[in-house]
Amino acid sequence: SLNKMNFITRLSALCLRKCKMQQRHQSSRRPAVPLGSRILTDPSKVFEHNMWDHMQWSQEEEENAKKKAAENSLVKVQRKDQDKYEREAKILPEKRRDELKTEGRSSEHTKINSTNSFSHKNEMFEEGEKYWKKNRCGSTSVEGYVYNKKQAKCLTDNPQGKNCGEDLGRLESFPGSDATYRILEVGCGAGNSVFPILKVLCNTPGTFLYCCDFASGAVDLVKSHSSYNSAWCSAFVHDVCDDALPYPFPDEILDVILLVFVLSTIHPNRMQGVVNRLAKLLKPGGMLLFRDYGRYDTAQLRFKKGHCLSENFYVRGDGTRVYFFTKEEVWNMFNLAGLTEVQNLVDRRLQVNRKKKVKMQRVWIQSKFQKPLLLSLNNPEETTGRHCY
């Protein structure tokens, strides 16, 4: 329905706004995108706020950024060390995991103070709750349309479903099988986004949250939290790079996937496989919400020589890795995975340290990609308009 589409649009817009980041602007014209409204029109007031939205770079600034990135990429990490970082790839270093564990035990709401935090995922659910309750579909299934490959084969070969009750029974026995709206957060960490989301879900019948992380310690923290309840959440350890590792639910059942500051930690050669696998988890019409580092972000330009693994791919001092995307690269990956673009843009902001009088140009890529609706079994030439979205 139209209401459902409006809800998803607002939900994803809220989800993909970074918490109060900043940048510079040389024009008063505001882009028609939901990425903030603080526009710098008077350069003398730059230190009056911590951030400025919708910055435009001059050609000189662009060239200087390219030059810095080229300089810090001259000396590459040795091959043996690159192999080591790949084998020991981490989302968080061991020391930071221990800190998170301590914080999780001492505070009801675990806090993660890292550059990859994304607090507007929390705001998304707080502000979007009324839209969710008003517009949420009553069921994920639509008679005559296919949402799962096993079900598709079953219904195509045998429309009455005879002799395939065992397979369908297994499909219905997974966590969240009774839900009508399902979300997956990839790279949930210790749960700084999970629990605000659960606060909404526990009051919204028919909804369910899956959340996974590479670090078992982080998942343990989520499960041990007093707000965790398996009735509306399933937290699990998962390596998204392992194509052979199954998810604890069938393909094509998710309404929304949050992929925020996760893909950049993965080796560029493995990114496409990760995106392909996640795309299979979405139901027709489902949405993948993406946000990550953009090319020539301040974080990229600050790397010293000897930290570059490959082009635009670096290793930090703590052993974690980070890639810096262009929106063309992002579009290409999701397009190859069979998803269609709803939004794909560069978010440039000016982040300001008012005490030290330091200005930092931040760049992120923010995107929404949707899985196309499936065709009717009864009429393969007709695309269904009956899906919730």
TrEMBL record:
Signal peptide: none annotated. Residues 78-111 have a biased composition (Basic and acidic residues). Residues 184-288 form the Methyltransferase type domain. The keyword Amino-acid biosynthesis does not apply. Keywords: Methyltransferase, S-adenosyl-L-methionine, Transferase, tRNA processing. GO terms for molecular function: tRNA (cytidine-3-)-methyltransferase activity. Residues 58-117 are annotated as: Disordered. One of its GO terms (biological process) is methylation. Belongs to the methyltransferase superfamily. METL family. This is METL2 protein. The lineage of its organism: Eukaryota, Metazoa, Chordata, Craniata, Vertebrata.
